[in-house]
Amino acid sequence: MQKIQNNKAWLLVLPVLVLVAFSAVVPLMTVVNYAFNDTFGNNQFFWAGLEWFDEMVHSDRLHGALGRQVLFSAIILAIEVPLGIFVALNMPKQSFWASFCLVVMALPLLIPFNVVGTIWQIFGRTDIGLLGHSLAALGVDYNYTNDPIDAWATVIVMDVWHWTSLVALLCYAGLQSIPQAYYQAAKIDQASRWAVFRYIELPKMKGVLLIAILLRFMDSFMIYTEPFVVTGGGPGNATTFLSIDLVKMAVGQFDLGPAAAFSLMYFLVIMLVSWVFYTVMTNLDKAEAGQ
Known about the structure:
Keywords: Membrane, Transmembrane, Transmembrane helix, Transport. Pfam families: BPD_transp_1 (PF00528). The chain is mainly α. It contains 12 helices and 2 strands. A two-stranded antiparallel ribbon has the order 1-2. Strand 1 (37-39) and strand 2 (45-47) form a beta hairpin.
């Protein structure tokens, strides 16, 4: 007897699909329209073809912003992933202190992006900021508004402070799923601490590490609010990442055609790199599972 499928549950999903259509699909189609057309106002458009895309591909401005963005994301991943693993390994596994540490680690994640930027903007000032004033008292010439290296250091430390907790909490969840029998067997075999991490803990964290790397890459590659509040993209263009450059082009200069082409290329780059990350790490998991 053939089973009758009931598709009425789709009616519950329909309102969500309608909201997604209006909040995502319609704006995306508007961006696509501007990317392939030129306009002089009055809602009159003229076909431009791939002109804006060609302009962006050969734009030194875009190349510079892309280079800064890739460097920033690489530094962030290189710091936050190992640091998050280290923090997770040293967090208490049970008792009151485990709950306390989880709450403390989650606090930076609850702070809005613009508030994080404002906190570090004040924190780094040499006149009223604790960090800036302390460094000045130690004789360190620190000024994130004038020195590109100081600006980069401030933005990186700010992002590490804000988002390392996410990696640590995900790794902690992966560690909690490891049965105690594994540790007992390792103790009987007199396995070293490195061996326990390499052969027991790290394999159990691979799934959550994949999620952590993907989330942190996408977030860092699209970062806007925090560096914009702290440095405004300066000094000069030192911290003008892709998102900041895109906003300046679209809102500041009102170059809607190039900005639309820029945003579509930006979106495709994020999707492509995320797909490569996911495919490579998934294949590694499958290869190790088949051994």
